[in-house]
Amino acid sequence: MSKAMDFFARQEQARRNTGSLVFYFVIAGFGIVAMVCLIVAAAIAIISGFLPNDGQYWIVRDFNKIMAVTAFVTGTVTLGLSLARINELRRGGGDSLASMLGGTLIPVDTTDPTYRKILNVTEETAIAAGIPSPPVYILGHEEGINAFAAGYRPQTAVIGVTKGAAELLDRDELQGVIAHELSHVLYGDMRLNIRLIGLIHGVTVMGVFGRRIFLRSLGYGGLVSRRVRDGRSFFPGVLGGLALMVVGAAGTFIGSLLKASICRQREYLADASAVQFTRNPSAIIGALKKMGGWSIGSQLESSRAEEASHLFIGQARSTIFRRLFATHPTLEQRIRRLDPAWDGAFPVVDEETRRSLAMASRREVPGLLALGAHVQPQADSSETGERCGGDGSEPEAVSREVGSLEAACLDYARTLMASLPPWLLQTTRNPEHARSLVFALLLSSDDAVRARQLDGLLLLTDIRCHDQVVEFFEAGDIHVPALRQLLLDMAVPALRRMPRETYAVFKEAVTMLINADRRVDLTEWMIHRVLIRRIAPFFDANRDVPMKVVGFAPVIRYVEVLLSCLAHLGRRIEDPDKRRAATQHSFDKGLELLDISGIQLLPHEDCTLVALDSALNKLELLTPPWKKQLLEASAAVIMADGIVAVRQGIVLRGVAEGLDLPMPPLLPGQTVHTTI
């Protein structure tokens, strides 16, 4: 199978699809406005026939004004309701959509074997893809085999899995489904999906109003007024409600066409990404075949399923005009894309299949991966010069890894997770223990600095937290660099569950621990950056970060800060002259890839944590092609001496995180970029 589309190309495609969506929405809006104006004009013509000449004169004289007001009000209501719905879904993140569909959050420390299987698969897949492990919701009343990803940003994304999928899919098939959904998270499809829901809401809301008016005119849906009982508002209400219902039906028609036209091709791409990631075509193929063989298929019962039908991996609702309005290609088409030799037969999936799979799930050890225990973690090679990511020699290879779904990274994540002692694995799944674990990761190896850190921690927290941190630090398992990065990734879901008041103390404690030695090293900065970006959206007001800056000219000063910080935070060289020369050489290497002028290496004292964070917050606004150039330039700075230590590779992930670019783990001593 050919390699999946480049991340930056997919991001640009999503941006173009958003532009197309707005264009079609404007056309749909004009259509809705025109229909309402026609209905109002017809009503005026009918009413004027019963009026005396004076009344007809006033209506004719003010007809244009009436039409203008009607068009303005209709357009404003349509646009306003669309924007309000988009903002509501954006601020609520994926959680609001999952709750709307009847989902229940699966606790990260659950011991239920079926739920544990889902969380294990989601966790290892997300870590391998370089994104936060999303919360998982179970749609416990849905027997169809289906799943979805929802959210406005990767940091607030959630995965939803139906009861049917949880019980009828084996582990490999479930991994194929999760990989499919995470590809939507990676490539920016979720934001488009949210906007699609909002815009369709705007063009269909007239039908909702009309239905309410119609029912109330007939005496349903509330108290029956005297005017309804004596018939004075019966006919106007019924006719007005029917008219708006016709407008709503037209909006629903347009909305269904929009969803169908935008969503179908993305499903093919997500299927291909799932195959590439798992290196197991039978995983996603098996899941699709079970959808076809199960009596319910992928159908959902929720009354809100139609509104969010384009979010799911399978067709959530059947339609009369299937080919015209289907949000997904047919199962036959999708399977043949992946397996041209398929004979067209679906397996028989019944209750006996459900029972046998449930028993298999219960035989799986909760909390551990089915990879085998006692896998030894890699040794600390932070200063040995082993190369990370690709062959470590070309900055362009780094940008190719962004947003990639690579089987090598999945194998690596599985191996590392299987190497964790059980006590440490459980630590990452408890909010209180995960918080202490992060503090332990930030403790200094210098006795004097560590003593100051622990004293400050005791002032901010309590003796129980203090003692836990000391215990974790002395355990030794957490000090392997590869495991340190993994533990940080695994702790994020539990940290998101800490009480809001605890989060404020947590942030202050992290900053105190980092600044205790009055300098910030590469690893400390990366931990701070990843934690804040991955956890903050769950406690602070969600903010949209539109990619709208084209070119480096508007942000050239921030480019200067980023490259200077990376150059100064490189390898430590004792000789001042050699250190200055090496720093300038690294900076120049990055500058060569940007083809810009007017910037120079900043002094070391200007390259602070605050300056670097501020620069990345502004550079995050760049559109994907410019982010790609900037990441390659950052990699060139780090790779300027021809070698990349593990700690430098970790910081490069921090830069990618700051630019909102998902980067898989950089693997010491092995190639992560493979072609399948």
Summed up:
This protein is an all-alpha fold. The chain has 27 helices and 4 strands. Among the domains are: 400-538, no CATH class; 544-658, no CATH class.
Can you describe what's shown?
Keywords: Cell membrane, Hydrolase, Membrane, Metal-binding, Metalloprotease, Protease, Transmembrane, Transmembrane helix, Zinc. Its cofactor is Zn(2+). Pfam families: Peptidase_M48. InterPro entries: HtpX_protease, Peptidase_M48. This is Peptidase M48 domain-containing protein. By secondary structure, this protein is mainly α. Among the domains are: about 400-540, no CATH class; about 545-660, no CATH class. The protein has 27 helices and four strands. It has helices at about 5-50, 55-60, 65-100, 115-130, 165-170, 170-185, 190-215, 225-230, 235-280, 280-295, 320-325, 330-340, 350-365, 395-400, 405-420, 420-425, 430-440, 445-460, 465-475, 480-495, 500-515, 520-535, 555-570, 575-590, 610-620, 625-640, 645-660; strands at about 105, 135-140, 145-150, 160. A four-stranded mixed beta sheet has the order 1-2-4-3. Strand 3 (about 145-150) and strand 4 (about 160) form a beta hairpin. Helix 7 (about 190-215) packs antiparallel against helix 9, helix 17 (about 430-440) packs antiparallel against helix 20 and helix 21 (about 500-515) packs antiparallel against helix 22 (about 520-535). The chain is globular.
